[in-house]
Amino acid sequence: ETFEKLGRLWLQKLDVDEAQGVEATVRQILQVWNSWQIFPPLFTKGLTCLLVSAVPEISAKEANAESDEQLKQKLSRWFSCLNQGSLPYECQMRGLAGKSLT
Fold first, then answer.
1. H helices present in the chain, as ranges
2. Dmax of the chain from CA atoms?
3. How many CB atoms lie within 10 A of CB 7?
4. What pTM does this model have?
């Protein structure tokens, strides 16, 4: 949740140079975590993704209207009830778990 807010809200409010500096520092921290192997690799990769790319809020209806067929298939898989049981675990393994998933 912290990395999502950092990427979505905080970094957007900084000027370009400040944002790049903060991003570089956080990437260095994540590299250290990887070298220490204290988190699974997917976890730190997920945190990096949350930091560097804004995470749009999307509804199931918007997912079905996606023009990119590959992305549409992936989104529909996430919105289907088939994966609901494993979703919290999969998100946690990728560093994407937040208060709303627990």
1. 2-5, 11-13, 16-36, 41-52, 60-64, 69-79, 87-93
2. 44
3. 22
4. 0.53
Task: Name the DSSP letter for residue 86.
Answer: T
Which pLDDT tens digit goes with each residue over 29-68?
Answer: 999 999 999 888 888 888 888 777 766 677 888 888 888 8
**What SS3 class is residue 15?**
coil
Listed residue (58, 57, 51) closest to 9, CA to CA: 51
Tokens of 70: 């590959």
Residues 6+ apart with CB under 8 A from 64: 72, 76
Q: What does the block give as tokens for 85?
A: 């049981």
Cβ partners under 8 Å of residue 80, min gap 6:
none
